[in-house]
Design a protein that fits this description.
Strand order of the largest sheet: 2-5-4-3
Number of helices: 3
Order of helices and strands: HEEEEEHEH
Distance between the termini: 58 Å
Largest sheet: 4 strands, antiparallel
Shape: elongated
Mean pLDDT: 88
Radius of gyration: 22 Å
């Protein structure tokens, strides 16, 4: 877990450095649907308390890849005794597109740097390009960008 936390810290630092970086011709569209909750906050429920253990030192013993982990905690100074704990991922909460939380996507709008933003509903992230409103927004953005192009002679 400590290694994973370190990688997450690195990713956060990287994202912080590029947070306000946008191309001069940036447009965006995103799902903002109350019926398509996303993980705005990640919450894990443990089946019991872990005694005498720092959560950053828990080891992943198994992963269902469906939101359930079995964690191993060493509870003795020698590390010989281990306690097994099950952690279950809480349900998604917060509007979005079942992948990107609305609050994260809204950050783009607050930047003031985008030329157009389409805040939409009715589709799931992975299949967004099967949605007619997404295709229309994308075509509009491509045409607006193409209008700025200069012809070579």
């Amino acid at each position: 877990m400590a290694h994973t936390c370190g990688l997450l810290d690195e990713a956060r630092a990287f994202h912080d450095t590029i947070a306000a970086t946008y191309h001069d011709r940036t447009f965006a569209h995103y799902g903002a649907d109350e019926d398509r909750p996303s993980w705005e906050h990640i919450t894990w429920h443990l089946n019991r308390n872990v005694r005498n253990s720092d959560w950053r030192k828990l080891l992943i013993a198994s992963d269902s890849k469906q939101g359930e982990l079995v964690l191993k905690a060493h509870v003795s100074p020698s590390g010989q005794d281990a306690e097994m704990v099950t952690a279950s991922l809480a349900h998604a909460q917060g509007a979005g597109d079942e992948t990107v939380p609305l609050r994260s996507a809204d950050h783009q709008m607050q930047s003031g740097k985008l030329l157009g933003i389409f805040k939409q509903s009715g589709y799931e992230h992975q299949s967004s390009y099967d949605d007619k409103q997404v295709l229309n927004a994308t075509l509009y953005c491509i045409l607006r960008i193409a209008q700025t192009m200069k012809r070579r002679k």
